[in-house]
Each structure stands twice: as structure tokens, then as C-alpha cells.
């Protein structure tokens, strides 16, 4: 049985080998098959090359169309916007100037200050204390005419420079609005440990490119002031717009509702005042008058005031010109405000009027500051200050207290006089009472 199985397997193997040899292609068939597959590969490669060429040609056509389209678009923009064709559109980019006291955010959109943060304080909820609200109401710039069209610098895209730092650690950055071979430049600077941001506006070779009414500019400064405290209603009562005349007087606008003022006199500065913090805009050569507006938000809003100013500045574009300003973003702390000599910023504080303001400014505040150097508990400081004031006015009130005590002692005798002398004899009753006062040495007036 085993022998027959082996013979069967051998026959099957032999048959398989025979069929493999019999079906094997000859050399001619192998060559034909090779040429067939080579032809398929050539067709496939040709198709791939055709697709690639088509894509390449389409891309070249698209690029050509894009270039032609961009060229046409740029030509149309230049015809419409003139030398400002590259500045009417873009993307807003922020740059930070920062020292130990404040953090200032600038943007190339308008080359303006977007916001300022006072770093040593926090608003309610332990949030960063930002002077402006983060809305679209902020605006700083001026209007002008170019190529028979009106523009606002706050709506144009400036070209920012890199931040430079001088040997005094003052940070500087410039924002340039190019106009052919001319340019408008905003230069900002922030010194170390300062609340002050310097601004210099410069114009070069713009005499035939830019015009303004009366060859001056009207700077528009608008902002929304957010609530910083939990007690928003009280905070709003002490938040308003203030400005100072060049002769020294300080005016404060209504803090409770809507108010508007137009001034033709020279102004030195304008301040947007919160209860505890302020933003002050100061002009080195003064503002040629202006219009200031203030309005209050209702209690449902996170903001408390919307403030705006339109301030005249002498600036002649017929020649290369320059104007210097400064922004102050600072707390309404008496000695911080007083450190800016000659500006009368302490008038931003509600220290009463007349002799009471004098007492607060030259006695109460200095004593309070001195007690701060000794005690850290403000409750204790207020108690001690109250006792000091009581002790100082005690001689003035002692005689009054003494007279009141004598009056209480004499009351039974006065009642006896009133019972003895009827009410229909007022003169006689008055004379008897005054005789009693004189005998006892009492002054009824205190």
C-alpha cells in the first residue's frame, strides 16, 4: 500500500513539472510581454506628464491672472486713494511699552495708544486695572484731506518701527504714515519708573499732499471709561472730564449726566478722570480751544462714562512741523499728582473749597502721610487723626461746652422764672432770665 502511494505522488509531481515546462513562455513571448508592459509604463508616464504640465500651466495662468488682478487692483486703489493706497487696509498689530509702573499697548491702526494698565493696582475682582474700556469707542487722531478725499488718521494703518532703548532705559517707538516722499510720524517714548508717555507728531514734506482746515489740526480723543470698583454708582459720581486753562483755572464738567463745553481760550491739558485714576493729555504749547463732551452710562453697563474731546493744535503742513504732547496714566494720589509741578493736577481731587480745601491740602493730607510712615493700619490712622483734630479744636469748643453745662444747672431757676412771670409779659420774663445769666456768668450764645 505504501509502495502504491509513493508511485502516485511521483506521478503527480511529474505531471506538474511537465505542465510548468510546457506552459513556460518562449523567448519571443517574453520579449512581447516586456514590450507590452513598457508601452503601458510609457502611456502612464505620458499621462502623468500631461497632468503635471496642465497643472503647471494652470498655476502659471492663475499667477499671471493674480498678478494682473493685483496690478489692476493696486492701480485702482492708487487712483482712488492716491499716496495712501497702501495705508487704507491692513491688519492691526499691537506693540507693548512697559516699565515698573504702567503697561502701554499701542497699535499700528492709527498709530495710537490702544490701552494703558496701571500695574501696581487691580480693579474689582482682582483684574488688571486698564484705563480704557476694551470696546470700539477709542479714537485718537485728526482729519485731513488728500486726493480730494477726507481721511481720519485713526482709520489708517501706520508702519511701526522696532522698539529702541536708550542709555537711560527710555523706550521709544515710531509709527510712520508714508505719503510718497513725505511722511507723518508719531513718536512715542516711555521712561523708566514713569507714568508719562511722550508723544511727538512730526510732518515731513507734506505741503502738497495733505491739507487741513485753517492749516491747523483738530485732535479727536475719545474713550470709554470702565468701572473699577464694586460701588459703581458712587464711582460714577466722582468720575468726569476736567480741563485746565493756560491761565491756571481748572474746570470740571458735570459728573452725573450729559454735558458739553466749547472753549475758545487756550487749554493746557484735558483729563479723563475716574474716581481713583486718571488719563491726562497735555500739550507743550497748549491747545487752541476745544469742544469736550461727557455722558454717563446706566447702572446696567460695565462702563461709567463716555468722554470725547476735539482739541485744536497749531500745526502748519505747508512746512515741516512738529508738536509735542504727553499722556499721563496715573493714580489720583495727592503726592503723585503734586509731583507734576505747575500743572495743578491736584485739582482733580475733590478736596472741598475755600478754607476747607486749604486745611485738607496743607494739614489733613500731610499728617495722614506722616502717620502712614508709623502705622500700617488705616483704621488706627483715622482714629489718631480724629483725636488730633478734636484736640486742636478743643479750645474753641470748651467755652461752648462750659456754657451748655451752666445752662443745664440754671434750668430749674429758668423754669421758676417762667412760672412766676406769665407768658403775656415776655419783656419782663426776658429781663429776669438775662439777669440770671449775668449773675451766673453764662453766655447763652455759647
Care to describe what's here?
The chain is α+β, with helices and mostly antiparallel strands and 446 residues long. It has seven helices and 21 strands. The strands form four sheets. Strands 8, 9, 10, 11, 12, 14, 15, 17, 18 and 21 form a ten-stranded antiparallel beta sheet that branches. Strands 5-13-20-19-16 form a five-stranded antiparallel beta sheet. A four-stranded antiparallel beta sheet has the order 1-2-3-4, with no helix packed on it. A hairpin with a 3-residue loop joins β1 and β2. α5 (354-372) packs across α6 (378-420). The protein is elongated.
% residues in beta strands: 25-35%
Number of strands: 21
Order of helices and strands: HHEEEEEEEEEEEEEHEEEEEEEEHHHH
Q: Please state the overall shape, judged from the principal axes of the Cα atoms.
A: elongated
**Number of helical regions:** 7
Helix % is: 25-40%
List keywords for this structure.
single chain; alpha+beta; elongated
Outline of the structure:
The protein is α+β, with helices and mostly antiparallel strands and 446 residues long. The protein is 37% helix and 31% strand. The protein has helices spanning 2-23, 27-81, 232-237, 334-338, 354-372, 378-420, 426-440; strands at 94-98, 102-107, 112-123, 127-130, 139-141, 143-146, 149-152, 159-160, 164-165, 171-179, 182-190, 196-204, 217-226, 240-245, 250-252, 259-263, 267-273, 277-287, 290-296, 303-313, 321-331.
Strands, helices and their partners?
Layout: H1 2-23, H2 27-81, E1 94-98, E2 102-107, E3 112-123, E4 127-130, E5 139-141, E6 143-146, E7 149-152, E8 159-160, E9 164-165, E10 171-179, E11 182-190, E12 196-204, E13 217-226, H3 232-237, E14 240-245, E15 250-252, E16 259-263, E17 267-273, E18 277-287, E19 290-296, E20 303-313, E21 321-331, H4 334-338, H5 354-372, H6 378-420, H7 426-440
Antiparallel strand pairs: 1-2, 2-3, 3-4, 5-13, 6-7, 8-10, 9-10, 10-11, 11-12, 12-21, 13-20, 14-15, 14-17, 16-19, 17-18, 18-21, 19-20
Helix pairs in contact: 5-6, 6-7
